[in-house]
Design goal:
By secondary structure, the chain is mainly alpha-helical. It has a domain at about 20-75. About 70% of the residues lie in helices and about 0% in strands. The protein has helices at about 5-15, 25-40, 45-75. The longest helix is centred in the C-terminal third of the chain and has 32 residues, at about 45-75. The protein is elongated.
Length: about 80
């Protein structure tokens, strides 16, 4: 069992792959949210909520597929670091 130490903390901070959420996913969510709130100015609330739900579903599905694909490629040995 891992114990808390300064080395473990520094490894977690310095290694981007150790983060639970990838950085590019955070950037993509931020861009989509800005675009959606921009579209909110042109549409009514009902269309906005429907559009928001659709975009969230598409984002979650695409992130899940990307995660599963990279895990499969890593376990198969195609992506070597």
């Amino acid at each position: 069992m891992d114990t808390f130490s300064l080395d473990n903390l520094l490894t977690f901070i310095n290694d981007p792959s150790a983060l639970l959420i990838p950085q590019n996913l955070i950037v993509a969510i931020a861009i989509v949210m800005l675009a959606v709130f921009g579209l909110r100015l042109f549409f009514g609330m009902a269309r906005f909520i429907f559009l928001l739900i659709c975009l969230v579903l598409v984002g979650v599905i695409s992130a899940g597929v990307t995660y599963l694909f990279t895990e499969f490629m890593n376990s198969s040995g195609f992506l070597l670091q």
